[in-house]
User: Which sequence fits this backbone?
């Protein structure tokens, strides 16, 4: 594989698709029509399809099982999350067994433990990680902001303000991190797309050439730019939706209504 810099053709050389999940493969608990068949078609044409998500709430096995439920086979190494990027970032500056607070879902807890860190809910900590979780409340906000204010390393899995679900959107990790930042008086380090830790994780795991598919230009499009890869925008999530993010001008190399309509464009260009 080439490194995906100017002059290379990541489609021809890599045939790797880094596919977002929320708003691309599913919305909430509802699969987006045609996504499973589209992924199967790409794989049959020799592409490797992997999944990169900023939603840190679920464990890797949860994502694998959910993909299987929607008729999309995947191995654990095919799923790359902002939780993993955040845990790697924290572990890079912490001793094994260091206490870390997870103001986040089980995906972050799993990733921190996998990196040899000790997850605690209170007390002095070396770091606090804020990610998407549905039981975020005032007590959780108080604990996380106290830790960040007291000098703990403060990491957000990502800053996406919302996540698309069936019928609309819900507040995302960025909304929760904004609350913690306001109370703590400081901004977090960001781990997930489009930040460098996620880019480094993807390159180390999958190589240096590919295509990024996503529904959010400000996140997925910026992530593609950080990697130096083409961006394929689908309009089945936040991008192009009413009240969501507009299609950039000039538009990215590939724009389609959904993954099913995107695949013929990618195959024609490969």
Assistant:
């Amino acid at each position: 594989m080439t490194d995906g810099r100017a002059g290379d053709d990541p489609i021809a050389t890599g045939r790797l698709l880094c596919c977002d999940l929320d708003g691309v493969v599913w919305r909430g608990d509802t699969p987006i029509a045609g996504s499973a068949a589209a992924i199967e078609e790409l794989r049959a044409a020799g592409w490797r399809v992997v999944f990169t998500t900023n939603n840190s709430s679920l464990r890797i096995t949860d994502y694998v099982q959910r993909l299987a439920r929607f008729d999309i086979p995947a191995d654990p190494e095919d799923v790359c999350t902002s939780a993993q990027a955040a845990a790697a970032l924290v572990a890079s500056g912490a001793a094994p067994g260091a206490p870390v607070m997870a103001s986040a879902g089980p995906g972050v807890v799993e990733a921190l433990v996998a990196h040899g860190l000790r997850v605690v809910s209170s007390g002095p900590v070396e770091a606090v990680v804020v990610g998407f979780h549905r039981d975020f409340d005032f007590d959780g906000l108080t604990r996380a902001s106290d830790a960040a204010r007291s000098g703990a390393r403060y990491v957000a899995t990502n800053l996406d303000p919302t996540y698309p679900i069936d019928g609309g959107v819900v507040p995302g990790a960025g909304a929760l991190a904004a609350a913690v930042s306001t109370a703590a008086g400081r901004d977090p380090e960001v781990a997930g797309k489009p930040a460098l830790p996620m880019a480094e994780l993807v390159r180390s795991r999958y190589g240096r050439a590919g295509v990024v598919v996503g529904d959010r230009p400000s996140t997925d499009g910026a992530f593609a730019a950080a990697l130096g890869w083409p961006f394929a925008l689908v309009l089945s999530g936040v991008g192009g939706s009413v009240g969501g993010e507009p299609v950039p001008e000039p538009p990215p190399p590939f724009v389609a209504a959904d993954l099913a309509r995107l695949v013929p464009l990618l195959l024609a260009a490969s």
In short: Confidence is low (pLDDT under 50) at residues 1-8. Residues 10-54+193-269 form a domain with the Rossmann fold fold (CATH 3.40.50.1000). Residues 138-149 form the longest helix (12 residues).
